[in-house]
Every structure is written in C-alpha cells, then in structure tokens.
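Revision sheet: structure tokens.
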Amino acid sequence: MRVIAGTYRSRQLKSLKGLALRPTSDRLRETLFNVISGRIAGSFLDPPYAAMEDYRRVLSFLGASPLLAEGGLVIAEHRRSFELPESAGNLQSFRVLRQGDASLTFYRFACSTPSNDASGE
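Predicted:
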C-alpha cells in the first residue's frame, strides 16, 4: 500500500499479511472517483473481507437510520464472489461495478412514503 496524494505521496505503508485485510486497488479507486465525479457519496463501506457478515448488518442499519438524506449514496466494496442484497431498509442497489476480484455495489437511499390509495381514502 502507498499514500497517493499530499505531502506523503508515494510513501509505502506497512500492512498485515493475508486476505483478511486488503487495500482498495489503485484502479478500483480511480473507477470509483470517476463514477462519483465530485459528488459527495455519503458513505463508503469497506470492511475486511474476513468480516463479510458485517455488510448486511451495516447496510440494514444505514437503510433504517436517519443518517442519510433522500438520494444519499452508500457504496460498498466487497469480494466479487460475494453477492450483497438488492435492498436493505430504505437502501436500494442500482449499480454493481466489477473489477478484478473486487466489486463496488452502489445503493441509493429513498425515504419511505405512504402510498396513495386509489380509492381516495
């Protein structure tokens, strides 16, 4: 791993060995920033691959909480072979980008609103 910007640009960082922790690849990070192109995403979810059970728990929490505004984004980086849920509370997935052994799943927050009854009641 290395620092990619600022005063410490190009400095190598020490990391733990193995697949339990893994850095986001430069290519995937570049793809992510090209997609969000200056928009504030809201939340980026990137737990270690060894903690895959945390994704559903955290997505459910974010989908049911008042932390995100209408239209707010949650982006989850995960192992390509691991499928995330289509929805979690008020979060609905709308895009999955796959690159190498990693994927980015994009969710949009939509506040639940009562549906209008066609009978006028």
